[in-house]
Amino acid sequence: MAQEFVWPLALAYNTHVPDNPFYQQPVIRDWVEAGILYAAKSAHPDGSCDDYFPYERAGGAAAFSLLACIESYNQMGLNNPIALQFFEKRADWLAHHNESGRLTNHQALIVLCLELLSKLLQTFKWDKSRVQRLERVLSWQNPEGWFQEYEGCDPGYHTLTISCLARIYQLRPDPRLKDALIKAVELAAEFVHPDGSYGGEYTSRNTYNFFPHGFELVGQWMPEALE
Questions:
Q1: What is the DSSP letter of 146?
Q2: Residue 6 CB contacts under 8 Å (≥ 6 apart), including other chains
């Protein structure tokens, strides 16, 4: 899962801001490509990978790192058949993998991976799985707006799910997805504490995470998401 750090490297390479010593440095491009290839080399033969334990084949780790690799590959303009073969194999595994427990953020991550990779490889092979998993995500949203994370609501991972769904909506607009995002963003606002902190150990997964990108995307058509 540590190979997901190819993504911040790709962002550092491509972000033209003052005093960025990494901007357009060839060695950064080499590191990103090497990181993706190591992800391929270290994967199991079926494309899966481990997180904490040998032979764990963790869905979350596989999805997180695949998303980072796809985004980095696109941002760097790479052309590497080995990497593309790896992406396809991991996507095949994710498309048919069902983990124990209800972790909506993992399902949303998988949907986004399949969406992006389908576009990159110009294929429709994962359409059925993509649609089924998106239906699962929507069905796991509580009427209050939160998404299931094991046995309840976790604001930190809730913001990750929002980020994934907002990106999916950007790529493939859907009225039901828009409605789900509106409810999710409104719910997230309830977990911002008076001092500006967010989440905590009173939630289902005890997280303090906050992923802002989804709010930026939703804010393009729902201004209150940026407040």
A1: P
A2: 31, 32, 35, 36, 39, 68, 69, 72
Distance CA 148, CA 157 (A): 10
Strands (E), 47-199: 148-149, 152-153
pTM of the model: 0.96
What does the alpha-carbon distance between residue 3 and residue 35 come to, in Å, rounded to a whole number? 6
pLDDT digit of tens for each residue in the chain (227 aa)?
A: 899 999 999 999 999 999 999 999 999 999 999 999 999 999 999 999 999 999 999 999 999 999 999 999 999 999 999 999 999 999 999 999 999 899 999 999 999 999 999 999 999 999 999 999 999 999 999 999 999 999 899 999 999 999 999 999 999 999 999 999 999 999 999 999 999 999 999 999 999 999 999 999 999 999 988 87
Report helix, strand or coil for 168: helix
